[in-house]
Amino acid sequence: MKKVLMFLLLAVLSLGILAACGGNGNNNAAENADDNAGENAANENNDAVENEAEENNDANNNEEAVELDGELVVYSARNEQFVQALLDKFTEETGVEVRALHEADPLQLQEEAGNVQADVFISNDLGALEYLNQQDLLEGFDPENVESIDEQFRAENNEWIAISARARGFIYNKDMISEDEMPTKMEDLLDAEWAEVENGYAITRGGNGGMIGNVSALRYEWGDERTTEWINSIQENAAGIFEGHGDIRRAVGAGEHAFGLVNNYYYHQQLEEPTDNNVGFIYTDQGEDEMGAIANAAGLGLVAGAPNDENARAFIEWVLEEENQLAFVGESLEVPINTDLEPPYEEAVPFSELKVQDMPLKELGNYFQDTRALIEDAGLDLELR
């Protein structure tokens, strides 16, 4: 009997042990299945992330690898010596052939609106750029690094972007007239006494972009009646009327005229001449109750319907690279609008240290067309002497 009971007890224990073993095996299998599923899911997620990252990298690499070709047509109202080196640099770095029309009239874009030829327009007058924008002849977009240019120096949708700035004033020959004897305000030229200065003073003809901006700023400040009086006064009393400001700075440096009305960077250019460089400069209207120096800027815009639109957008983004913003300033010796960039010459006066006319530069566009008519009616547009 004892042997039978022992046998039964061992059988029960064996069954319990087998059941326990069987239970652990099932649990382990389930746990292993869950672990394997989790690992597989994690691996799938990791693979998806890696694949997405690789796709993004490939996309970025493809963007960087995009090569420009073909041509770019640039109309520029600026002097060729201030622009051509920049265009040559773009060709060298991208392979895009640039065809340029220098000293172009901004209204040529209006004439060609039905048959667009230009891709980019470069101007030394924001009034011209804003006027073209108001005529829907420029197109906006969001180029990379555009935020480096303050909003006041850009059109609302970046149809035009200013890169370099300057102020108006009087360059004078120190051997002929002292600083104390010089006029200090724009309105001083209303007085005929300045016609009596030895060799007199010089101005540009009215069709010059700088003069158009100057007259537009005076219209904003004074109104048309007094501005017309000012135009008539300088036309009558100026001893020399030149095509461009470069002619004025050279004439003043050589003593052909005592002083001349120019943009400030022409003074810096004359200082770099090996001779005839004993000149000074007066920033106008710097007194407490005076309007401040008339300012303007040079910039560029994408022409609406540009035949080479992709190259035009690439060129504008390229110009906005800091290295090329300085290249845009180049030999002109203007002041970069980007305040993070140092002017390319020591004598430059930062705009932050000048009293500048309190006028949004975009306003120049509202006066551009009527200013041209006002100047033409006075006859200053064509006269040279």
Question: Layout of helices and strands, plus pairs?
Answer:
Blueprint: H1 2-65, E1 71-76, H2 80-94, E2 97-102, H3 107-111, E3 120-123, H4 126-134, E4 138-139, E5 160-173, E6 201-204, H5 209-222, H6 224-237, E7 240-242, H7 245-253, E8 259-263, H8 264-271, E9 279-283, E10 295-303, H9 309-319, H10 322-329, E11 335-336, H11 364-378
Helix pairs in contact: 2-10, 4-11, 5-6, 5-11, 7-8
Protein name: Iron(III) transport system substrate-binding protein
GO molecular function, one term: metal ion binding
Keywords: Coiled coil, Ion transport, Iron, Iron transport, Metal-binding, Signal, Transport
Report what the structure shows.
- By secondary structure, the chain is an alpha/beta fold.
- The chain has 2 domains: 71-165 and 296-349, Periplasmic binding protein-like II (D-Maltodextrin-Binding Protein, domain 2, 3-Layer(aba) Sandwich), CATH 3.40.190; 166-294 and 374-378, 3-Layer(aba) Sandwich (D-Maltodextrin-Binding Protein, domain 2).
- It is built from 11 helices and 11 strands.
- It has helices at 2-65, 80-94, 107-111, 126-134, 209-222, 224-237, 245-253, 264-271, 309-319, 322-329, 364-378, and strands spanning 71-76, 97-102, 120-123, 138-139, 160-173, 201-204, 240-242, 259-263, 279-283, 295-303, 335-336.
- Strands 1, 2, 3, 4, 5, 6, 7, 8, 9, 10 and 11 form an 11-stranded mixed sheet that branches.
- Fe cation binds at residues 265-266.
- It holds the Pfam family SBP_bac_8.
- It comes from Salipaludibacillus aurantiacus.
- One of its GO terms (cellular component) is outer membrane-bounded periplasmic space.
